[in-house]
Amino acid sequence: MTSSCAKVILLEDPASKGRKLEEMRRNEDIAKACKKVAAVRVEVDKLSEQVSAVETTVSGRTKVADQDFVVIKEMLMVQLLKLDGIEAEGEAKLKLASYRHKMHSEAEHVVSSGNITMQNVGYEHSQ
Amino acid sequence: MAKQNKAIGIDLGTCNSCVAVYQQKRVHIIENEAGSKTTPSMVAFTSAERLIGEAAKNQFMLNPQNTVFDIKRLIGRRFKDDTVQRDLGLWPFRVVRGKKKKPMVEVEFKGFTRKFSAEEISCMILWKLKKTSETFLKAKVRDAVITVPAYFSDAQRQATRDAATIAGLNVLQIMNEPIAAAIAYGLDNKSNSSSQAKFILVFDLGGGTFDISLLSIKKNVFKVVATDGDSHLGGSDFDNNLVDYCSQKFKQKYNGDISRNPRALRRLLTACERAKKCLSSAMETVIELESLSEDKDFRITITRTQFEELNMELFQKCIKSVDKCLAGAKVLRSEVEDVVLVGGSTRIPKLRQMIQRFFRGKELCNAINPDEAVAYGAAVQAAVLIGHRIDLTVMDVTPLSLGIDVEGDLMDVVVPKNTSIPTRKEVLYTTSLDNQAIINISVFQGERAHVEDNYYLGEFTLSGIPAAPRGEVSIAVCFEIDGSGILKVSAEHKNTGVRSEIVVNSEDVGGLSKEEMERALIDAERFEVEDEEIKKITVKRLDFEKYSYKMRERVRQEKLKGLMDMDEIENIEKYVKEAIEWAEGHDDAECEKLDEKMQELKTICNALVWTSCTDSDDSQGSHSDKEESEVES
């Protein structure tokens, strides 16, 4: 490279770009995981409310609510599968694990306390 | 808008379908509205609407009786056919006998019970794919090539053609799937000159079906010589084996049964599918399911070797089918010119290795995404049929990122790695000094931030830039890689048109050995001391595991042969079994401990190795060396 030839320069600020990239990516990953967890949390809360709503309205007359309950259960399941699929590294991983444990046992509780005799029509056909 | 004449290629699959189009000298796989390159071959009927593809799949659990899939297993068949009768029990939707002995699916749609023929359902899927293509091309689409399995009868082909016609498509050709895959790899042109027939084997292991086809090609004309396979073997079988293994382990650990817990099973299945995919690139993966059943957390490490062991029977079945197919056609494996891999499950490294070994180390055709290869070939054929001249020689990707150096000796990537070639990328740069007249551009290849850590490809200068304050000049730097991997980098001053360029040898860009070496170096540098240690242990542990599984296999063989003393064999068997159990229970064993155990096991198995290594292709010593280098690369 001859001395008279100056280097090309990027329109953006290249120096900071290289150095910060690594750290940014790490922070981004954690933030992304948190965001995903929060999204699942919101949905699960909504569904839990619906379960208790169904519970109070039926109060004994279970037949009416069967289909509703299947739908809610399935939607809950979809959310929990999403939760299983979230990945994290290091510190965030531990937090995520304990959080998952809590949410899954909560969901289990919600479903069983639904106390509606149900036939799990859909679940037998999982691929 | 200019009048467009585009023809699409459709891979109408049993589980998933894929559509592609040839334009701008490239094949584009068209993404559906969900951003996915394949669309589930599913149609669902609800009280309010009809859903096709992703939407149908998403609501499957809620409405299994009215969600139709696997329609390819019904099309063009009679209700009384054995295959239809056998499959009936597997589907949650109802299939009844219709007019002319045709099978019809019966569903609840908008409050009425309705019957649909297989053609009608297929038509809906094809219509959806047509719509997807029209959205992508922003034009009407009529002409299409549709693929079917090589073993499809005339009735099945005609029914598929009818379905397409109802969907508003003009069917240019009903094409055999394996031939489409072969065309995708340009194998039709490859043997152009020779008048001798050449054989190509297409190995297609998809989501639910397994097809082997032996093709012959002579003067550009393909012929299907023989087919074999299994109509019910696919990716989900591997998942299920893993699920069974995990639920066993769960039982051992907590004495709890999850086979009656549908929620837990579904979580496990989803996790196992993810683990399987992960093991195609990683050597081991962890399945972690918190509160899986009765508040108990489940955690298990699955190594690639374990996964392979679990599915070895299925893999062997696949290889046997290949053997059977060749034997039936009286073709020797050495006569097979090319082996083409199709279907997502052909990503499994062990399977690839076994196929390669079967064909005595032949390079396999696997550069094209195996989920898309058939649609890819169909798109090429469609373009040929409407009169395009096709010049597709190489379908490849850039193995490393390509870029130039910018201020601070930093690498600025212009073409990211894994970009499919041919490609063309342009980026604008400017000067770093006032009145700078000359710019020196150095081209590098690699993933590191600093150019000195990357691989230098060449440099050139652009001179004659008119005087201007720094940052006011705009220089367009353009990277062009053609079909044969030749890289041309050019720089142009936008206002004056001053230009300069450099051509980099194809060996440096598309070639493998140099880059692979470079990449291994780069990766090695990146690992810190700690990572190094972990890697060493992992390699040791995997070696230990591999060795013990291998010995187990040897013991089994030896038992069958009956040449050795039974007591001795049983003694060795016991040790091997203990070793396997020890390895499973000690993910965190230290280096020394592993060495010790390995030594112990080797001493015990020595008797076995000496008597049986004569009939094997690789002796033990070279075996373990080879495995080690495989892990590191």
Query: Which structural category do the helix and sheet elements of chain B fall into?
Result: alpha+beta
Backbone shape of chain A: elongated
Tally of DSSP helical segments of chain B: 17
- C-alpha geometry of chain B: globular
Distance between the termini of chain A: 62 Å
GO cellular component, one term (chain B): endoplasmic reticulum lumen
Protein name (chain B): Heat shock protein 70
Keywords (chain B): ATP-binding, Nucleotide-binding
InterPro entries (chain B): ATPase_NBD, Heat_shock_70_CS, HSP70_C_sf, HSP70_peptide-bd_sf, Hsp_70_fam
Describe it for me?
The complex is a heterodimer of chains A (127) and B (633). Chain A has 127 residues and is mostly helical. Chain A is built from three helices and one strand; from the N terminus they run E-H-H-H. The model of chain B is unreliable at 506-514 and 612-633 (pLDDT under 50). Chain B has 633 residues and is an alpha+beta fold. The relative contact order of chain B is 0.08. Helix content of chain B is 39%, strand content 27%. The chains are: A mainly alpha (127), B alpha+beta (633). Chain A binds chain B through residues 1-2, 4-11, 14-15, 17-18, 21, 70-71, 74, 77, 80-81, 84-85, 97-98, 100-102, 104-105, 108, 111, 120-127, and chain B through 60-62, 64, 92, 236, 262-263, 265-267, 269-271, 274, 288-292, 295, 297, 404-408, 410, 412, 428-433, 436, 438-442, 449-450, 459, 461, 470-471, 475, 477. Strand 1 (8-9) of chain A pairs antiparallel with strand 24 (423-431) of chain B.
